[in-house]
Amino acid sequence: MHDEKAFYSMGGVSGHAGLFSNTADIAVLMQTMLNGGSYGNVTLFSPETVKMFTRRSPEDATFGLGWRVNGNASMTSTFGTLASAEAYGHTGWTGTLTVIDPVNHMAIVMLSNKPPLACRRSAKKSQYV
After folding, report:
1. pLDDT tens column, 40-55
2. Which of 93, 128, 108 is nearest to 16 (CA)?
């Protein structure tokens, strides 16, 4: 989470200020997406819903519904050069990253909870009201 004021102004509960999890649980979500919406005996999403999540937006080919999509060469900083054109994922402000590549049948998760150094320096100067 990185919105220093969310804790103080909203009692620590805020939908815009981060997602809390661990690599094991996110790996299950990512495998669920690779499986077309199911994991084990549980179906979280229909295959049609997974397609809807990952379909490129007509306005911007790098956006799906809740996911970034490897829609063009501008996404190299997120997906690198080896991910397929069908790869999708999400990044977070503190350096988190998920990449799901259905063509290569793989997923990557990287979690962190520390904002960039420049922001940590400016946060020390922040005032909370």
Report:
1. 999 999 999 999 999 9
2. 93
**Is residue 16 one of the residues assigned to a domain?**
no
The model's confidence at residue 113, banded by pLDDT at 50, 70 and 90, is: confident
Domain span at residue 100 reads: 21-113
**What pTM was computed for the model?**
0.78
In-domain check, residue 11: no
Confirm whether 39 is domain-assigned. Answer: yes
| Largest interatomic CA distance in the chain | 50
66 occurs within a structural domain = yes
